[in-house]
Design goal:
- The chain has 14 helices and 10 strands.
- The chain is of the alpha/beta class and 325 residues long.
- The radius of gyration is 19 Å and the shape is globular.
- It starts with 6 loop residues before the first strand and ends with a helix.
């Protein structure tokens, strides 16, 4: 049986099982467009505040924008208040998403201080109430999923209980990043937690994240854990071709390394995707963090990257990048 396969999440069926994680500050509509064009089967939005949605904050609403060519819109919500979750759903549905994901894993202090993200690992009762509310408020055709961590710290590993609460609330897929909140993004993800979770809940769609930086990592995670899908996070930044490469490895047993010319063209396409949405100074500044990642491994791009860092004008940014591809 092929490791690469379709995945049915509630009423949604993806073409394959290679997903993009919700990355704050990265997985906006432009980046999701690039990842989907490079073979991702599903891409999740940046975290969207339930509080910001129902209070109709414009910067929050922008995060719900569908990417060009994005057939399945998966919005990740976060919040620690039942009322905010309840009131945010009708606003979120204006974007016509097919999936509503809920964050129970973000380790950022500003998030868990508001009883959101990984803070919910310490309050399974509130976690259950929030997910149950989300499931009740969302239309039946919309899939509800959740992303969790292994626990608060090494002394409080409770992902089995959290998963049980999530399933009781009616979720259609559980994504586990097998690190604790205390680890943040340090150390190593314990993939044995993924294997254990799939063993405990064999009929549930389980997606795994954590330490996926190469196609071989994804293959090994699928083989060793028996989970249904993998979710690339930091490994996709500046490296969206990881999806076509991973699919090739899973289906054909090998893949071609990406050459500098292709990488440069994808970077330029990414800039154009950003400017198709926003041609402001802010958009130029936003792309700079992506360019740093794209430029890794391309020695002749160092002078261009340094020149780009000083730019603010969108037209000059396009001209500079176009001149070196």
């Amino acid at each position: 049986m092929s490791l690469y396969k379709k995945v049915t999440i509630g009423n949604v069926t993806t073409n394959g099982n290679l997903f993009v994680a919700p990355l704050a500050g990265y997985t906006d509509a432009a980046f999701r467009h690039i990842c989907l064009a490079q073979g991702a089967d599903l891409a999740f939005s940046e975290m969207v505040s339930c509080e910001g949605l129902w209070r109709e904050n414009e910067s929050t609403r922008i995060l719900t924008r569908r990417a060009a060519g994005e057939e399945i819109l998966a919005l990740q919500l976060f919040g620690g208040n039942v009322e905010a979750v309840q009131k945010s759903v009708p606003v979120a549905m204006k974007a016509n998403p097919q999936i509503l994901d809920f964050n129970c894993g973000c380790p950022a202090p500003k998030v868990h201080r508001s009883h959101s993200g990984s803070a919910l690992l310490q309050d399974p009762v509130l976690f259950h109430s929030l997910l149950k509310t989300l499931r009740q408020e969302a239309p039946s055709h919309v899939a509800v999923t959740v992303k969790i961590r292994s626990g608060w710290d090494s002394e409080k590993i409770n992902y089995p209980l959290i998963a049980e609460k999530a399933l009781d609330a009616g979720v259609d897929m559980i994504t586990l990043h097998p690190r604790t909140r205390a680890q943040g993004y340090t150390g190593f993800a314990d993939w044995q937690h993924l294997k254990d979770l799939k063993r405990r809940f064999p009929q549930t769609v389980i997606c795994g994240s954590g330490d996926l930086f190469a196609p071989e990592d994804a293959k090994r995670m699928l083989e060793e854990t028996g989970i249904d899908a993998v979710m690339f996070a930091r490994g996709v930044i500046g490296n969206p071709t990881i999806f076509t490469q991973t699919r090739s490895l899973l289906t054909q047993g090998s893949y071609e390394p990406v050459d500098s010319k292709t990488k440069k063209q994808i970077a330029f396409n990414h800039l154009q995707a950003i400017f198709a949405i926003d041609r402001s100074v802010h958009a130029v500044r936003d792309f700079k963090k992506h360019l740093i990642s794209y430029a890794k491994g391309i020695p002749d791009w160092k002078p261009m990257r340094e020149a780009f860092a000083r730019l603010e004008d969108p037209r000059a940014a396009v001209e500079l990048l176009q001149s070196v591809i």
